[in-house]
Amino acid sequence: MAGGAIVSTGAPKDYPAKLTSFVLFASVVAATGGLIVGYDIGISGGVTSMDSFLSKFFPSVYRKEKENQSTNQYCKFDSQVLQMFTSSLYLAALIASFFASSVTRMFGRKWSMFGGGITFLVGAALNGFAQDVLMLILGRILLGIGVGFAGQSIPIYLSEMAPARMRGMLNIGFQFMITIGILAANLINYGTSKINGGWGWRISLGLAAVPASIITLGSLFLPDTPNSLIERGHGDEAMCMLCRIRGTNDIHEEYIDLVVAGEVAKLVKHPWRNILKRKYRPQLIMTIFVPFFQQLTGINVIMFYAPVLFKTIGFGGNASLMSAVIIGLVNVFATIVSIFTVDKLGRQKLFLQGGSQMLACQIIVGTLIAIKFGTSGEANPSRTYAAFVVFFICVYVAGFAWSWGPLASLVPSEIFPLEIRSAGQSINVSVNMFFTFIIAQAFLTMLCHMKFGLFYFFGAWVLIMTTFVAVFFPETKNVPIEEMILVWKAHWFWGRFIADEEIHIGGRVEMANGISKAGSK
Ligand code: BGC
């Protein structure tokens, strides 16, 4: 058995929670990486609705949009090429997250963040100065690589730095920055769309360099997590770092947890092969289902295409962009709610409450659109009617922002044992990116064919995922990250996948056990 640790099937330890300013600062800096992810989500929809951008890079789409005299609102914007611009980035991110896994594991979390930041920076420059479609696409690919690396490494970094009882709060800093990035992008689009001369889109795309510079420079100052230091054989440094981030020398038990986890991790040479083992089945299934479900909430229909959607229900161009800004604000503020409740109420309550709220809103919005537009897609709803639709979309977004939004990156980053954490997080990011791609690519076509039924379609998925959480998700709040296995072992369904002797926990073993030697070599 690794490092001489005892086998334990008891309850997870309750370490004292103290948030040192060191951890707070490191977490805020790392979380700013969320800005690049969010900026991109928010910027593409607005840019692709700018005539000057369309006529320069996608003239055929532009002509088609101008010539289209059809009164069927549902099908006004259906274009594969246009959707490809938005969605191509997510394919690049998907592939990049697998490479990020090795960098994160072998060189530490901070170098993945740095790599992500710098690639995103170059991508932003290429896009801002783009002269032809080739530069545009190349830029998109680099942005995607940046998003893949940031999404893979930052949630792990935050979850490892945080004291167990504040892990939810600190990890959600990443999602919070994503929502700020989306909002900033919406506001910038609102401003640049008013620039005469047709170059506003260059500012929108080029300004992505700002958040990229923040994380690129910031990551250089970040310390590595003790977990990663141990994993890479720097036991002494890890112990110092743990004392420093916890603000006390009384880190004995937590340190032993890390050492044992590190010992097991060193035995695992091929995380990708290992993750398929039966004992990791519960976490593997969760890390696939959670991002899949998150995208099937339909959130990115709103995030990418809100301006287009609002034009569809009869808003003018200005009002549409403004409504997107309102939604962006709701997204930011509702995320704050989860920051302060996730470690008290727990993950499951937020999942269930948020899911129910989203489902109710999807039924209402679908019905409001059905009543006005029917299946013909022809109508001219009053301002009050359209405002009602926007209101319920806002309530839906709030439900997402304190449940599936933050939890879909928190949960996968905290459920895996160290030896396969990095690989598990890559799977999470790539599944997320794959389904983000599918939704981005398919939404306008789906709207054209499924009409108001699209809202019921996503509603049905929300019902499925909420039931799934109620039945299969064990609560993970306040559990020390290297003791998470105990939670799975105690679950009525998942427990059967984990044999007693596969649980290596060091938390309550004395130093005399020889583990200290293993850790400080
Ligand atoms: C999701 C994104 C989404 C964003 C909205 C993130 O957690 O992964 O796809 O656009 O939340 O705030």
Structure description:
About 75% of the residues lie in helices and about 0% in strands. The protein is an all-alpha fold. Helix 8 (about 165-190) packs across helix 20. The longest helix has about 35 residues, at about 420-450. The site of beta-D-glucopyranose has 14 residues, from helix 8, helix 16, helix 20 and helix 21.
Content of β-strand: under 5%
User: What is the number of beta strands?
Assistant: 0
User: Helix content range of the residues, please?
Assistant: over 70%
Which small compounds were modeled alongside the protein?
A: beta-D-glucopyranose
Poorly predicted segments = 1-9, 507-521
Q: Output mean pLDDT.
A: 86
The helix tally amounts to: 24
What is the alpha-carbon Rg in Å? Answer: 23 Å
General form: globular
Structural class: mainly alpha
